[in-house]
Amino acid sequence: MRTSPSLHLRGVLLPGDEQRDVWVRDGLISMDPVPGATTVGSGGWIVPGLVDAHCHVGIKYGGGHEDHDGAIAQATTEREVGALLLRDAGSPVDTRELDDHDDLPRIIRAGRHIAMPKRYIPGLAVDLEDESQLPEAVRQQARLGDGWVKLVGDWIDRSVGDLAPLWDDDILRAAIDAAHSEGARVTAHVFGEDALPGLIGAGIDCIEHGTGLTDDTVEMMVEHGTALVPTLINIETFPSIADSAGRYPRYADHMRDLHARVADTVGRAHDAGVPIYAGTDAGGSIEHGRVADEVAALTAVGLSPTDALGAASWNARRWLGRAGVEHGAPADLVFYTEDPRTGPDVLSAPDVVILRGRIW
User: How many Å apart are CA 279 and CA 56, to the nearest integer?
Assistant: First the structure.
């Protein structure tokens, strides 16, 4: 194992507003001086490594499964923009070999998506023949993941021509209880309105997308402490999805409506106090390395620039059980000579990226 150099940074340590000195020694952060450390950044802004909280390492851009080299390339792209912690919200391939690469972001895995036949993107999910199998499938994926399980909460039901829930409420309660008994949290893909009450009422920990949230389900999320990862840059694809759904006009109209009101939907959830975190849905229809665009989209729906950045850094790390910039924590951080809250052009181009205590 290579010895990490001792490093020194001085800058505004966000989310605070004061200049601070931060040292790195033996791969860990030190708030105490380290003699002989090399100063690699001064007079700028220091941020805990960025987080993409909905990121699919292993799903090829445009669809399909990535091979090993492709997954490495995806993770490398994330590192280059400062995204050093990825919550992989469902992947059809095993990316654990990437953990052996000290130059790649840390990945928190949710195993594979769980769905029913013909009720999700072909080839990505574990398809159950009967919904009664859901609790056991959740247990299996909880044991394969890193503390998360991903359900497909709704998808187009071609028999009705629109979005519809996949699971019975009682089955959901049993499945989420099973995950919690395994020490895992549960999240779900949900576009529409109808699946949300059952998922939230069953104790789900997070909702992905959430474009169908209403005042009632926002209130339920606040009551239950349910988080939201709205993947706003992915929602921008809804009109094109609708355009390609000519056989299902009701579904197409629904997707266009969800897209048209997403800013109001997510803004109301934020105003109500729903915890919101930044996730791009990279993989498939979204290219990797776009967390800065998601942060900008969060500011556009009402989060302050500091809160939006926190949703992709210090707050997201705390939610995922990972440390920020604190004494003794792993040295995963980024440094900017300009304020990263000023926009995606700055945020996507950190001047210094320190991962596992080394500059990359």
Answer: 10
